[in-house]
């Protein structure tokens, strides 16, 4: 992993977890050419979901943003695993898709997913700026409040 990325993670007090194994019949990531596709990541910390329920009901905006940040940390952990530990191979975070379990009247999905977007930009700097979608969902796997997947350009 590049020294700059390691230093940024340390400055943010982030220790990357081990990349989690898939929970069903899929793989955690695939590489095609210079593209790394990372499967949806849930807001897991220490093997447990940190946010379950719906934004606009039992989950606050702040907790949703923390959940999105945790998803981004898990995306980075998957990228590290996919790239043999060398995050300096990330050329650009191209796109993230953010899914927010929310009530029909909750319309701040974009603010929730900022928790992930902000972290990716802090860690990867210009290479962390990406396009994205932030959409509301009726439910997510295991009752998670947020799920995020990613596409990265790699060297």
Automatic annotation (TrEMBL):
Pfam families: YjgF_endoribonc
InterPro entries: Endoribo_LPSP/chorism_mut-like, RutC-like_sf
Endoribonuclease L-PSP/chorismate mutase-like domain boundaries: 7-143
Highest taxon of the lineage: Bacteria
Name of the molecule in the record: Enamine deaminase RidA (YjgF/YER057c/UK114 family)
Species in which this protein is naturally found: Martelella mediterranea
Taxonomic lineage from the root: Bacteria, Pseudomonadati, Pseudomonadota, Alphaproteobacteria, Hyphomicrobiales
């Amino acid at each position: 992993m590049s020294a700059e990325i390691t230093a940024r993670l340390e400055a943010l007090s982030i220790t990357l977890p081990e990349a989690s194994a898939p929970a069903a019949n899929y793989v955690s990531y695939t590489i095609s050419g210079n593209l790394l596709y990372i499967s949806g990541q849930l807001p897991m910390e220490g093997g447990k979901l940190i946010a379950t329920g719906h934004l606009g009901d039992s989950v606050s905006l702040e907790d949703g943003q923390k959940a999105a940040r945790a998803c981004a940390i898990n995306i980075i952990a998957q990228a590290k695993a996919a790239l043999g530990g060398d995050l300096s191979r990330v050329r650009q975070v191209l796109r993230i898709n953010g899914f927010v379990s929310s009530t029909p009247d909750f319309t701040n999905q974009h603010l929730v997913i900022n928790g992930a977007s902000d972290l990716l930009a802090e860690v990867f700097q210009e290479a962390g700026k990406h396009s994205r979608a932030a959409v509301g969902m009726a439910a997510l796997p295991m009752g998670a409040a947020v799920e995020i997947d990613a596409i990265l350009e790699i060297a």
